């Protein structure tokens, strides 16, 4: 979610002309990026809280490890998504292009990283590719934290 939210918010500001008005007031680009990261980090913390509460209390998923490590891993992964969203928003000009790129990169990674389909069930060549995907190791680490 953080990839799409970050990318679309900056592209929307650029399309609507809000970003031009901000430039006129003398705001620096580093201040814009920093403020976006703060706002999206707060949203990310709220999302992590909701997901962890739902997973642990509603669905009764056991957590044998430290909950702080689970939250930090989620935050680190979300922060990586925010930076990717910033890259997408700096490359693409229109909202539809940014949305297409975020969706087209997110879903293959989600399907192949081991969340929905186990890595052991994939062909050997595909498994070698999936080890280089950005969500494969965090998913394995999350599974390890929750089960240990």
Automatic annotation (TrEMBL):
This is ABC-2 type transporter transmembrane domain-containing protein. It comes from the Eukaryota. Its main location: membrane. It is a multi-pass membrane protein. It comes from Didymodactylos carnosus. The keyword Zinc does not apply. InterPro entries: ABC-2_transporter_component (IPR051449), ABC2_TM (IPR013525), ABC_2_transport (IPR000412). GO terms for cellular component: ATP-binding cassette (ABC) transporter complex. It is found in: Cell membrane. Residues 3-146 form the ABC-2 type transporter transmembrane domain. The chain crosses the membrane at residues 33-55, 67-92, 98-119. Keywords: Cell membrane, Membrane, Transmembrane, Transmembrane helix.
């Amino acid at each position: 979610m953080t990839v799409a939210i970050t990318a679309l918010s900056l592209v929307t500001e650029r399309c609507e002309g809000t970003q031009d008005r901000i430039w006129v007031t003398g705001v620096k680009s580093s201040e814009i990026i920093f403020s976006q990261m703060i706002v999206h980090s707060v949203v990310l913390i709220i999302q992590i809280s909701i997901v962890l509460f739902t997973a642990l209390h509603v669905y009764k998923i056991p957590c044998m490890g430290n909950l702080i490590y689970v939250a930090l891993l989620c935050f680190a992964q979300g922060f990586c998504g925010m930076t990717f969203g910033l890259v997408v928003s700096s490359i693409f000009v229109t909202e539809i292009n940014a949305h297409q790129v975020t969706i087209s990169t997110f879903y293959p990674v989600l399907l192949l990283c081991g969340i929905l389909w186990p890595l052991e069930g994939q062909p050997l060549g595909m498994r070698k590719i999936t080890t280089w995907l950005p969500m494969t190791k965090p998913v394995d680490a999350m599974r390890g934290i929750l089960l240990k």
